[in-house]
Design brief:
This protein has an eight-stranded mixed beta sheet with strand order 2-3-4-1-5-6-7-8, with helices on both faces. The chain has a domain at 17-81 and 611-740 and 754-787: Rossmann fold, CATH 3.40.50. The chain has helices at 30-34, 94-104, 113-150, 154-158, 182-189, 191-212, 243-273, 280-306, 321-324, 326-342, 357-384, 396-423, 441-479, 490-503, 509-534, 538-541, 547-580, 582-597, 611-626, 641-651, 655-658, 670-677, 679-682, 684-693, 763-787, and strands at 17-22, 39-44, 49-53, 71-76, 633-639, 661-666, 696-702, 731-735. It is globular, with a radius of gyration of 30 Å. 53% of the residues lie in helices and 6% in strands. By secondary structure, it is mainly alpha-helical. Residues 47-71, 708-739, 776-819 are annotated as: Disordered.
């Protein structure tokens, strides 16, 4: 491994220059990034690593061989979000990921600390309700539909060999097997939802250890430092290390999952024990279990509400015993409920459905209330601190939170209805004449919403397709004007105009999400009202209505059930292909990578945050390259999502180190996507502060790019001095795409429309990179001239952090604030 501290330049002369390449969504190989099939790993592991060309392995020892161009290095992080096909199962956690995303989409705030904390609390409560909803849905399938209804109906259970051992006898009064008692069937079925909760806990714990437990660059910021002082949140030392919060949320959500299963068991047994023929002793035990469940739920709720994120320093501390013991205590309550449920009760038979139909209605009403409150807070924050181009005017968090609830509700309702249809054979659950009663009425209503939502999405897709067609026609005549001196070709112009029109759909995405979220809120309200008002499934609720209405209700109920089953299989197949096929992954990769870019701070069972590994990797690499060697230069070059990682890593550096670095971004969603949806973290004032702290930043973009766009930083004052006068601008574009309009002597074949890819093929890329290096070398010369003849200061002492990682020396330029 090369030595980062080998001398590669005399004092006052430019030293070795490094270009650190960071790829975007979909990933690529080191050979493709470096343009050489012979590459070597410099540092890192099989998950994420820095590579060089084999010829550049010892570049530090021979700087004279690299005076003309920088030494390229490729940071490959694609294995953090792809790999074996088993990771496709992470897409099942999509509702949790979207709920976590709602925390980060809050509007920017200025001195509204209490409102910001309340905003985070509401998002955490929405996330907690999703855990309850998921576990309750699994309980509905395992305990109610299978163990209670199907196994309790002799024909349904005995027609399925895998269920026959626990099926009730056909003849009344006959004795069945040991497992045929309803309480024992429920106790056995409780293994499935308990196993789901345990699996989620294990995945959260394992992925944290594998992906996110990386020590950041050390540094401390006063805990009471207000956000209004201009410090970017992404520059705080603890932003990418939230170990304690994830551990607390994991404990609370695991406990609430176990307690949900315990509550389902206890509700079924106590209903029997309180009736005629029930045991007073078992009834007393049931009341005690109900009290324990309530105490445990209040305990978990307190843990969720008590503490949010702490970013001023890495949170290494462990939680108290009251938090770490919470999952174990909840599991103990569940085991007691299993024993209580499995106790012998003579004369108990299973009829109808299990108690708890109201549970799903209560969850739906609670989620709707939380989403509305989140929207009110978002509007208040946006009104106080207006940031240009903020998505949905401050309602982004409410819309994203509503989508998370919708995904959870539709998934739970659809799966329950599909399992009910499967178990009932030729019958229709809820309509009579079948073997089972079917799922709760509200879940059937929610499943019936699915076709209506799909029809709405189809209408929106048709509208956007019309807009693309109209915009393409309007732009066709203007395309050739961008290429002076060419002969217009209508077919060529139409293809280019269509690419530009399709790329423009990205800017209309907020209204698509807002429309779907609003429709979901309204339809969810209709489902709850329909359940409470009629108490019947959609088909029965239309009895006496015109035949058209009744037929429509029956159609959407049946179609919703089948659509969920089809969508579930399609989701697994598509996600597995996406994580094994790079071309398929690029199709959906940007949305997935945006969701998993942010740390888990609302839902601990969300997919892991790859940035908590990638950002420290990049920050450590840049800090170690420039450490105590001001003659070195570094250009960090990021494409697409790689530009977001590069910006986040630069924010983690101290001001002195940033002045040795130039940033080159291309196809970057920093403003177009992150700046609009996450204004508190990537708003124009944040990007302007980052621009002012760097030696120089240049951004390349195209009109045909559906993801990247201009940066548009504000010109407002920032806490740090601005960049040199010759580097005041950030954006260069729009670049020509294709590079040439028709055939030329140099390019006799038609050039492709590159859109989001292959920015290096444009001559502007090499020009901007050369310009950045020239400015860095000029700064290095100026720095050397200022320090020539000045006695060399002793190097600062280096410490070690608690976990043995190296701590940066606290260095800053004269007159500049400490990092």
């Amino acid at each position: 491994m090369p030595s980062d501290h080998a001398p590669d330049g005399a004092p006052g002369k430019p030293g070795l220059a490094l270009e650190l390449l960071v790829h975007g969504v979909g990933g690529t190989t080191p050979a493709e990034m470096l343009g050489d099939p012979r590459t070597v790993r410099i540092t890192g592991d099989s998950t994420a690593a820095v590579h060089r060309r084999a010829d550049d392995k010892d570049a530090e020892q021979h700087p004279e061989d690299h005076t003309g161009e920088p030494v390229p290095e490729a940071y490959c992080w694609s294995n953090l979000t792809s790999g074996n096909g088993a990771r496709a199962l992470w897409l099942i956690l999509l509702p949790f990921m979207v709920a976590n995303l709602a925390h980060w989409t809050r509007p920017a705030s200025l001195g509204r600390c209490r409102t910001v904390r309340l905003h985070g609390l509401l998002v955490r409560l929405i996330a907690l309700s999703l855990t309850v909803l998921l576990v309750a849905a699994v309980c509905e399938v395992a305990l109610d539909l299978i163990a209670w209804q199907c196994a309790g109906a002799a024909r349904c259970g005995q027609d399925r060999s895998w269920l026959a051992f626990m099926t009730a006898p056909r003849q009344p009064g006959a004795s069945g097997g040991w497992w045929s008692q309803p309480g024992r069937r429920l106790a056995l079925a409780a293994v499935l939802p308990a196993a789901v909760v345990a699996l989620l806990w294990w995945l959260s714990h394992r992925t944290w250890s594998a992906y996110e437990s990386q020590p950041p660059l050390e540094g401390t910021v006063p805990e009471d430092a207000p956000e209004a002082d201009g410090r970017a949140p992404l520059s705080l030392p603890g932003f990418w290390y939230g170990k304690r919060l994830v551990a607390r949320l994991r404990a609370a959500h695991t406990a609430i999952g176990f307690l949900t299963v315990a509550a389902a068991l206890t509700a079924a047994t106590t209903r029997h024990d309180r009736g005629p023929g029930g045991s007073a002793v078992l009834e007393a035990c049931g009341r005690l279990l109900e009290g324990l469940v309530l105490v445990g739920a209040a305990w978990a709720l307190f843990v969720v509400c008590r503490r949010g994120r702490k970013e001023s320093e890495p949170d290494h501390r462990s939680d108290s015993l009251a938090v770490t013991a919470l999952p174990g205590a909840a599991l103990a309550v569940l085991l007691l409920a299993v024993v209580h449920s499995g106790w012998s009760r003579s004369g108990w038979t299973s009829r109808g459905t299990l108690p708890g139909d109201e549970t799903f209605s209560v969850i739906a009403v609670l989620q709707g209330t939380l989403v509305v409150a989140l929207g009110v807070l978002g509007l208040r924050l946006h009104r106080v601190t207006r940031v240009p181009r903020t998505a949905l005017g401050g309602l982004a968090s409410a819309a994203v939170g509503m989508l998370a609830c919708a995904l959870g509700g539709l998934l739970s309702g659809g799966v329950s209805q599909r399992v009910g249809d499967w178990l009932d054979g030729s019958g229709t659950p809820g309509h009579g004449g079948g073997d089972i009663e079917g799922p709760p009425t509200v879940l059937t209503w929610q499943a019936s919403i699915i076709p209506v939502l799909l029809a709405l999405v189809l209408l929106l897709a048709c509208w956007f397709a019309f807009r693309v067609w109209r915009d393409a026609r309007r732009l066709t005549d203007d395309v050739a004007a961008g290429y002076p001196g060419v002969v217009p070709d209508e077919s060529r112009s139409r293809r280019i105009a269509s690419a530009i029109a399709r790329a423009g759909l990205t800017d209309r995405a907020p209204w698509l999400i807002a429309t779907v979220a609003a429709a979901t809120l309204v339809l969810g309200g209709v489902a709850v009202v329909g359940t409470l008002w009629t108490g019947q499934v959609p088909g029965e609720a239309t009895n006496g209505a015109p035949d058209v209405v009744a037929g429509f209700a029956d159609t959407v109920q049946t179609l919703g059930s089948w659509l969920v089953g089809f969508a579930f299989v399609l989701l697994l197949a598509w996600s597995r292909r996406a994580y094994k096929d790079a071309s398929a992954r690029r199709t959906i990769g940007i949305l997935w990578d945006v969701g998993t870019f942010w740390p888990r701070c609302a839902h601990p069972f969300a997919p892991p945050c790859y940035a908590e590994r990638a950002v420290p990797d990049l920050a450590w690499r840049m800090a170690m390259w420039t450490d105590r060697q001001p003659e070195r230069q570094l250009v960090i070059s990021g494409h697409s999502q790689g530009s977001v990682l590069a910006a986040a890593a630069v924010w983690q550096l101290d001001p002195g180190t940033r002045r040795q670095i130039a940033l080159l971004t291309y196809g970057s969603p920093l403003e177009r996507l992150y700046g609009r949806w996450f204004p508190a973290y990537f708003g124009p004032h944040r990007l302007a502060a980052l621009h002012g702290g760097l030696e120089c930043w240049r951004n390349l973009w195209r009109l045909t790019d559906p993801i990247g766009g201009p940066i548009r930083p504000e010109t407002a004052d920032t806490p740090e001095p601005g960049p040199p006068e010759e580097c005041r601008g950030v954006d260069r574009g729009p670049l020509h795409d294709p590079l040439v309009y028709g055939r030329t002597r140099e390019l006799p074949l038609p050039e492709p429309i590159l859109a989001h890819g292959d920015y290096q093929a444009d001559p502007a890329f090499a020009e901007e990179r050369a310009g950045l290096l020239a400015r860095l070398k000029a700064r290095s010369r100026r720095s050397g001239e200022r320090t020539e003849g000045v006695p060399r200061q002793p190097e600062p002492r280096q410490d070690r952090s608690e976990n043995g990682s190296r701590v940066r020396a606290a260095q800053s330029e004269p007159g500049r604030p400490e990092a």
